[in-house]
Amino acid sequence: DHGIPRENVIIDPLVMPIGAMASAGRSVFRILNRCRDELGVNTTCGASNISFGLPLREQITHTFLAICLAHGVDAPIVNVAHSRGVILAADAIL
Q: What helix, strand, coil percent values describe the chain, rounded to 5?
Protein backbone atom coordinates (compact mmCIF):
# COMPACT_ATOMS: atom_id res chain seq x y z
CA ASP A 1 0.00 0.00 0.00
CA HIS A 2 2.97 2.32 0.57
CA GLY A 3 4.88 1.52 -2.61
CA ILE A 4 7.53 -0.69 -0.99
CA PRO A 5 8.34 -3.63 -3.28
CA ARG A 6 7.74 -7.03 -1.67
CA GLU A 7 11.37 -8.03 -2.27
CA ASN A 8 12.44 -5.13 -0.01
CA VAL A 9 10.34 -6.32 2.94
CA ILE A 10 11.87 -8.57 5.61
CA ILE A 11 9.70 -9.92 8.42
CA ASP A 12 11.09 -11.30 11.69
CA PRO A 13 8.56 -13.59 13.42
CA LEU A 14 10.35 -13.13 16.79
CA VAL A 15 11.48 -16.56 17.93
CA MET A 16 10.64 -17.35 21.55
CA PRO A 17 12.49 -20.01 23.58
CA ILE A 18 10.82 -23.42 23.62
CA GLY A 19 11.67 -23.64 27.32
CA ALA A 20 9.17 -20.84 27.93
CA MET A 21 6.69 -21.63 25.15
CA ALA A 22 6.56 -25.23 23.91
CA SER A 23 4.80 -24.28 20.65
CA ALA A 24 7.35 -21.59 19.73
CA GLY A 25 9.01 -23.57 16.94
CA ARG A 26 5.78 -24.62 15.28
CA SER A 27 4.51 -21.04 15.45
CA VAL A 28 7.61 -19.75 13.66
CA PHE A 29 7.27 -22.39 10.93
CA ARG A 30 3.64 -21.37 10.31
CA ILE A 31 4.61 -17.69 10.11
CA LEU A 32 7.52 -18.41 7.73
CA ASN A 33 5.17 -20.35 5.46
CA ARG A 34 2.56 -17.59 5.46
CA CYS A 35 5.13 -14.86 4.78
CA ARG A 36 6.46 -16.83 1.82
CA ASP A 37 3.18 -18.20 0.42
CA GLU A 38 0.65 -15.46 1.19
CA LEU A 39 2.71 -12.27 1.33
CA GLY A 40 5.67 -13.12 -0.90
CA VAL A 41 8.12 -11.33 1.41
CA ASN A 42 11.53 -12.20 2.84
CA THR A 43 12.02 -13.49 6.36
CA THR A 44 14.68 -13.51 9.05
CA CYS A 45 14.89 -14.87 12.59
CA GLY A 46 17.36 -15.25 15.43
CA ALA A 47 17.88 -19.01 15.33
CA SER A 48 19.53 -19.33 18.76
CA ASN A 49 16.57 -17.71 20.54
CA ILE A 50 14.74 -21.07 20.33
CA SER A 51 17.23 -22.78 22.68
CA PHE A 52 17.77 -20.06 25.27
CA GLY A 53 18.34 -21.54 28.74
CA LEU A 54 18.30 -25.16 27.60
CA PRO A 55 20.90 -27.95 27.68
CA LEU A 56 22.22 -29.11 24.30
CA ARG A 57 21.68 -25.59 23.07
CA GLU A 58 23.82 -25.85 19.93
CA GLN A 59 22.08 -29.03 18.76
CA ILE A 60 18.63 -27.53 19.31
CA THR A 61 19.61 -24.33 17.49
CA HIS A 62 21.07 -26.23 14.53
CA THR A 63 18.02 -28.46 14.21
CA PHE A 64 15.73 -25.43 14.37
CA LEU A 65 17.86 -23.63 11.77
CA ALA A 66 17.66 -26.57 9.36
CA ILE A 67 13.87 -26.72 9.72
CA CYS A 68 13.60 -22.94 9.25
CA LEU A 69 15.62 -23.24 6.04
CA ALA A 70 13.21 -25.95 4.87
CA HIS A 71 10.35 -23.54 5.58
CA GLY A 72 11.98 -20.83 3.48
CA VAL A 73 13.70 -18.44 5.88
CA ASP A 74 15.78 -16.09 3.73
CA ALA A 75 18.22 -14.46 6.13
CA PRO A 76 18.61 -16.35 9.41
CA ILE A 77 20.59 -14.63 12.14
CA VAL A 78 23.26 -17.15 13.17
CA ASN A 79 26.86 -17.48 14.24
CA VAL A 80 28.29 -18.57 10.89
CA ALA A 81 31.37 -20.06 12.58
CA HIS A 82 29.07 -22.62 14.24
CA SER A 83 26.25 -22.92 11.70
CA ARG A 84 28.02 -22.98 8.32
CA GLY A 85 27.91 -26.78 8.05
CA VAL A 86 24.19 -26.89 8.85
CA ILE A 87 23.47 -24.23 6.22
CA LEU A 88 25.54 -25.99 3.55
CA ALA A 89 24.01 -29.40 4.36
CA ALA A 90 20.46 -28.03 4.34
CA ASP A 91 21.16 -26.26 1.05
CA ALA A 92 22.44 -29.49 -0.53
CA ILE A 93 19.43 -31.49 0.71
CA LEU A 94 16.82 -28.88 -0.19
A: 55, 10, 35
